[in-house]
Amino acid sequence: MSNLEVDDERVEAKPGEDSTEQVVSYVRALIERGRLRPGDRLPAERELATQIGVSRPTVRAGLRALAAMGVVQSRHGSGTYIPDGPPTLATEPLSFLAALHGFTRDEMYEARRILEVGAAGLAAGRATPEQVATLAEEVASLFASMNEPQVFLVHDINFHRAVALASGNPIVASLVEMVSALYYERRRVTAERASDRDLRDAAEAHRRIYQAIRSRDPEGARAAMNEHLNQARDYQAQESGAASDVVEPRAAAMPAVTPAASERGGSRRRSGAR
Predict the structure, then answer these.
(1) DSSP code of residue 127
(2) Cβ density class 36-55: b for 16+ within 10 Å, e for less
(3) 6 phi, psi to nearest 5 deg
(4) How many Å apart are CA 206 and CA 154, to the nearest integer?
(5) CATH 1.20.120.530 in the chain, residue ranges
(6) Which of 46, 76, 81, 193 has the fewest CB atoms found within 10 Å of its own CB?
(7) Which CATH number applies to 92-273?
(8) Under DSSP, is residue 183 helix (H, G, I), strand (E, B) or coil?
């Protein structure tokens, strides 16, 4: 049985643990003991291999496993890092479950209501001024992109991400982010079929949610989010038709525009969200 050394402390490998699992356990120990924090760079592969007592190919395999879990990120020419942004969960497991079990639209929206209605209520009590400003910009962008359904969809998703982040609960934010990937795959297929009325109604619904959060009205924010998600489910059922009620099995790459990027674009904020 091998021992994994962590800064003068030793971590005993679990019985039956293979070499790749030893790498995962070693990095987990570094994180749990505060040796690695968000934004930190991991030791080089050669150093990790020596510390753990495994080969460099085994270290690479272990790092790939950690990357699939969202625990580390590889930066070309720089090394492997612990992500320093909001915590995220890998989306592939959920997309596999969708493929295996055929998640329906109603099931997806039920999950979203459970997560996002509560998140909206929390955001009404916890959102920072910067987060409220981000919501305002996303709402303004929705009104500005009603002639471009795919762009509208990006801002729609970013708004919901921003509400989840404003909840102040990283677990809720991570779960919403994971479900958003599945929603994006389903929605991008039908987005072009949305009518002008549907898009305008959706933009107005997002504005009501934003206004309740800005007004520090948790009950109003929860009610507005619940009404919006129910309405969106009904509109998308009309767009897709009963024949395509099953959620697409593979999560697409999420849009590059993020709430964080929107926050950096504060100078572009418009007044349309008022």
Answers:
(1) -
(2) beeeeebbebeebbebbebe
(3) -130, 95
(4) 13
(5) 92-273
(6) 76
(7) 1.20.120.530
(8) helix
Can you give 46-96 as a three-state secondary structure string? HHHHHHHCCCHHHHHHHHHHHHHCCCCEEECCCEEECCCCCCCCCCHHHHH
CA 19 to chain centre: 31
User: Cβ contacts of residue 182 below 8 Å, gap of 6+?
Assistant: 91, 94, 95, 98, 103, 108, 247, 251
Give the CATH number of domain 3-81: 1.10.10.10
Both structure tokens of 8: 């003068």
Q: Are 265 and 164 in contact (CB under 8 A)?
A: no
Q: Specify whether the CB–CB gap between 104 and 245 falls below 8 A.
A: yes
Provide CATH 1.10.10.10 ranges for the chain. 3-81
Determine the Cα–Cα distance for residues 159 and 246; give it in Å rounded to an integer: 25
Over residues 66-87, the pLDDT tens digits come to 887 778 888 888 899 998 866 6
Residue pLDDT, tens place only, 247-261? 444 444 555 444 443
